[in-house]
Amino acid sequence: MRYALLFFFASAAFGQQWELGADIGYGIYRDGTIFSSTETIQAGIRNRFAAGIMIGDEFSDYVSAEFNYLYHDGHPFLRGSGVNSDIQGNSDALTYNLLFHFKKRDHRWRPFVSGGAGGKEYVIAGPAPFPQPIPQVASLTTNDVWKVVFSAGGGITWRALRHMLLRAEFRDYMTTFPRQEIVPAPHNTARGIFQQFTPLFGASYTF
Q: Would you give the DSSP letter of residue 111?
């Protein structure tokens, strides 16, 4: 029995394939809303470019795991009542994802779906606007905020060379409203799930 277990784990380790890659894309946000007794404004993150890196472990023919880091150069903003104001910022998302492939790893084209979770930091890189554009409704502050993030998506990989993969995919990063950064005025209400819809294109090396 002991030798059988050793053989099993040795075979599993031998069958693993590791992957190291990078990608670039564009983050498109579904933003939130802030309600007051007199008016309603939009609050969210500007649509900007995104770029990231990944480390993957393909431990079976149909399932793999990845650690992903994604940077998005989006600025928090307030829009409404004739005002369209933002503050310089960006975000960093760290997620652990499982990928479910529809074909074995020896196929050249492999579609997949993915899902995972992690943390996302909304970072402020510039001074707060002075004066605040709509203080009776909400304010833009210099607070950095960490949020739990969920990711879901899908895509396809193409084996261009023996150890090189090209990838096209779409990811949706979802967090709750970062109320410590975009702060509603007293007695006002912030609602909405922040979703970063992100098409990405990348390349990776397998070993």
A: E
Q: Residue 7 in 3-state DSSP?
A: helix
* Mean of per-residue pLDDT scores for the chain: 92
pLDDT digits (tens, 9 = 90+) for 32-58: 999 999 899 999 999 999 999 999 999
Q: Are 101 and 112 in contact (CB under 8 A)?
A: yes
Task: From 189, 207, 164, 202, select the one nearest 36 (Cα to Cα).
Answer: 189
What does each C-alpha distance from 10 to 3, 16, 56, 66, 104 come to in angstroms?
A: 10, 10, 19, 22, 20
d(C-alpha 175, C-alpha 32), whole Å: 11
Each residue's pLDDT tens digit, 80-103: 988 899 999 999 999 999 999 999
Joined together, the tokens standing for residue 190 give 């912030």
- Type of residue numbered 174: M
Q: What is the CATH number of domain 16-206?
A: 2.40.160.20
Nearest CA to 156 out of 147, 169, 145 is that of 169
Q: Where do the domains of the chain lie?
A: 16-206
* 61-86 tens-digit pLDDT: 999 999 999 999 999 999 998 889 99
